[in-house]
Amino acid sequence: PHGSYVTLSHCWGNAATVFKLEKANKESLLKELPPLAKTFEEAIIAAKELGARYIWIDCICIIQDDKADWEREASLMANVYRNAMCNISATASSDSTGGLFYNREEIFTGISLSYPETGEKLLLIREELEVAGWVLQERLLSPRIVHFTNRQLAWECNEHIALTFRSDLLPALSGIAKYLQEISGATYLTGIWK
Fold first, then answer.
1. Cβ neighbour number for residue 131 with a 10 Å cutoff
2. Fewer beta carbons within 10 Å, N or C terminal of the chain?
């Protein structure tokens, strides 16, 4: 499906306590969902408000204790994020209990703001979710992202990001590889990480 669903980016926190789809609970979850953690409940509300019919949440949509299912679904994640209407990002929440909705000081209403690479946009980088490993893929591939932080609600649109010239492809990929090399300590050599 293209655009009829949203995705959720969230921190798992303590993986042992997060609600997740497993072999043992799959059949019961197909019949009825139990009460969900605050982040998931509020993401469902946000999805409905955005007009989405479905929401994709990794820990509920991938069987976590089934290696074959996890590997198959992990290989499809790029398409899941790329084809979603948008990504809901629980940016400030350190686990599934933190939620999305915070009382925020109302500063501007009805005004469209565009932040340069310095300033407010940097607040997102310091939030809880922005340190998770999978987030880079989610941010790069999602056409649109709604960041729910404790200080702001930010809309990030990547829908029309494209290379102006085909010759820009390798320098762009090289820049991404260099950045990943710096933050991971891994070495990148002609398409191979070691």
1. 12
2. C
Q: Which residues of 80-103 are buried (b: 16+ CB within 10 A; e: fewer)?
A: bbebbbbbbbbbbbbbbebbbeee
Tell me if 65 sits within 8 A of 22, measured CB to CB: yes
Domain positions in the chain are 5-160, 162-194
**Structure letter (DSSP) for residue 53:** S
pLDDT of residue 78: 83
SS3 content of the chain, % helix, strand, coil (to 5): 40, 15, 45
Beta carbons of 3 and 84 less than 8 angstroms apart: yes
pTM: 0.70
Tens-place pLDDT, residues 148-193 = 877 777 777 766 555 556 666 566 666 666 766 776 677 777 666 6
Type of residue found at 41: E
Tell me which of 2 and 178 has the higher pLDDT.
Answer: 178
Per the model's pLDDT, the better-predicted residue between 77 and 134 turns out to be 77
Place of tokens 């991971």: 184
185: phi > 0 → left, psi -120 to 50 → alpha, else beta; which? left
Rg of the chain (C-alpha set): 18
